Here is the input.
Amino acid sequence: MLAVHSLTKRFGELTAVDGVSFHIRAGETYGLLGPNGAGKTTIISMVAGLIPANDGTVHVAGRPMTPAGTEAKRTIGLVPQELAIYPDLTARENLLFFGRLQGITGKELTRRADEVLELIGLADRAGDLTKKYSGGMKRRLNIGIGLLHRPGLLILDEPTVGVDPQSRNAILESVERLSVEGMAVLYTTHYMEEAERLCDRIAIIDEGRIQAEGTRDELITLTGGVDRINLRGGGSMARAAEALRALPAVRRVDSDGTGLLLTVSDGPTALAGIVTGAGHAGMSVTSVEVVRPDLESVFLHLTGKALRD
Amino acid sequence: MSPLLAIAAVELRRFLRDRSNIFFVFIFPLMLILLLGSQFGAGSGQGKVAIAGPESGLASALAAELRSAGVAVTASGADAARADLSRGRTDVALFLDEADGQAYEAGRTAELGVVMASQSSAQAVLQQVRTAVQAVSLGRGQLAALAGAGVPEANARQALDRAAAQTAVPTVEIVDTNEVTRAFRGLGRFDLGAAQQVLLFVFLSSLTGAVTLIQGRRFGVVGRVMSAPVSSGQVVAGQALGRFAIAAVQGGFIMAGTALLFGVEWGNLWLSALVLVLFCAVSAAAAMIIGSVIDHDSAAAGVGVGGGLVLGGLGGCMVPPEFFPDTLAAISYATPHRWAYDALAAIQRRGGTLGDILPQLGVLAAMAAALLLLGAWLLRRSLNRAL
Here is the structure.
């Protein structure tokens, strides 16, 4: 549905997007995971034909996407990061306006607007001015407008920013449903949990480049498949560290003065032996924490910085 | 509905939805036209005389004589007449009593009470009252003389009427040599104010309405619109059409409203509408420029109000340009208001034809074209900036 090849965007001396390539199949949800300023929105802008690329190509359903590419634009639904709605129009009026821009008219437009209002749970507030809506309701309408013309590719740019947990969950459920129905979804976020929950494949992006791409499990293997175990307590930590290094599952032991930080393979299995070994070596363990690798760990591993830096 | 029309329609809908706009765009201009017409419009210089006292042949004769001289006459009680005098509602009050009426009927001398108000116009009205009293007195004297000669009163009246009808009364044609006065000849009480205010408010509202363009960028709507299968040309054209529709709706409303409510004569309606259409195009283009180069609502509103008032004032929408000194009059031609004002003046006051107003239409069309091109270019740049 979407094929992006060597996409590059420069703003003066700054290269905001540097040779990005990826593709999305129908029914697949593809995530762009990266911190603010990583280049996600710039990629989205080029994929949606809002700004031209300096290099590279974007094809949507086989049609080239450019700012003048009206045919390719018929296939996409954009849900911008900003609340791109008119606050002085009602939800229905917003839907009808953007529907007309998509070339939908008459009864078909009215029917689709009704469908979307039901889908996003705003049917009973359809006649209210959107400036009276809560933040979550506005977000839902923002997404609904992107769905009105039933696009083959839905582009969601950080759709849950500033949304309460309940509305956020509703939005994520909607995206999951759309994917099941066969829509291709391009989803950008800097929330690791959202990417893990929604995306079939994820591209980790930083400084305008895709650092790694794959399924969640494929990305996690990039960290070497190791867990971290934090032991807190007192007693003879030096002797305990020495003893734990001898265990086969333990790859590394560091001490921060208040406890031991262990890097181990298959932490849950090795945990019992580690706690017992530390006790035999004279350490009184007061707390244990097992940290399994996640996308945050992957990002840290790949870029040397935290996702929310 | 095409995307172009959809964009224009939504701009108009958003403009009309703002309740403050309803007042300032539709109600306030009409109120101002009413106020200006009442205070300064043609006819406001008409003399006013109050005749206080019981009904009598003398009162009727004086009222008829004064009315024939173009004076507005009201009949009232003595207290009401004094109140009107003190508040400047009448220029002169005539106080008659029953004895005056009887003296008049009997052909005797009557002494009338006359009080003049303090306003400057009262002196001239007092002179008109004197003339009317002399005319009535003369008529009564002639009747009394004939009656004294033994002619029955009814016959005497008929004879005097016939004599008046047969006598060629010398007429005096007053030719006003004052150009300013001549320029306003033929205008109704509200005509001038309506022409000025329609231009002032159409331009002013268009400029302040440019705020919706800025909001479109600020709300992020521009990005969503540009991601739809519409060209940037369609978006720009739709915005331009929306601005034009806002101006045209207001202008049409003021023209129709003043014609219906105040009896304003717009002359040849097609020509006046043509002037308005071109002026709306200029206003729409100016709004596009303001909405494209300014990124903050409040700044745009300030520039819109300030610019609209200054240009309106310079263009003759506050003080008629006929009163301008030469330099200011020359400067006023830099504004579209002045050209539209001149065109409307030709149509309203002199029954101007299309040929008469072609120069004004040409200049307005050129201004509209130039500003639309500049506005479209700037708007396209501002759309890209928003992305």
